Amino acid sequence: MIRVLFADDHEMVRIGVSAYLSSQPDIEVIAEAGDGEDAVALAFQHRPDIILMDLVMEHMDGIEATKRITDEWPEAKIIIVTSFLDDEKVYPALEAGAVSYMLKTSKAEEIAQAIRATFEGRSILEPEVTGKIMTKMRHPDRRALHEDLTNREKEILLLMADGRTNQEIAEELFIALKTVKVHVSSILGKLQVSDRTQAVIYAFKHELVH
To answer: Which residues in this protein are found as 4-aspartylphosphate (predicted)?
Structure first.
């Protein structure tokens, strides 16, 4: 029997899905949780083979619950079952340690199949999730480069994009010309570009300038 813990804050969802899963000859729902805190506690208490985890729940969301479980129990097999497909949910859930990602629009039999596949060591992802991951791999996010800039460096980058010279920037910000040059050098290094023009192009490309 595949022992399952089901965490979802909608009681009717838990009742319906649990009833179907329990009717399967190889699946047993051993516990249900109505929020993230209960999910974490029950996961460590029962050590289920599979955890079905909703994302939006009271007290603790599914992403935090997943992270807390996998931090102490890396072997835990967690399947996200949610209504959300936005990047702010998908990537953090997978990074937290979720193995599979399903939508609540999936049929109960599809969730049962995902449970069996995940139990066997495979990862089941909604086609939309797979597409997002492939897109991210093809076009890696470079936002981290400019996120390393200090507030002053961001201010100077915007003035550079406005066509100001180092001298004009120094006068605008009431700082020494030498200080501006130091900041510009730091900006080029952090953005991994070789000159001011490339830095300005980066700023426009990443919509830092409006």
So the answer is: 54
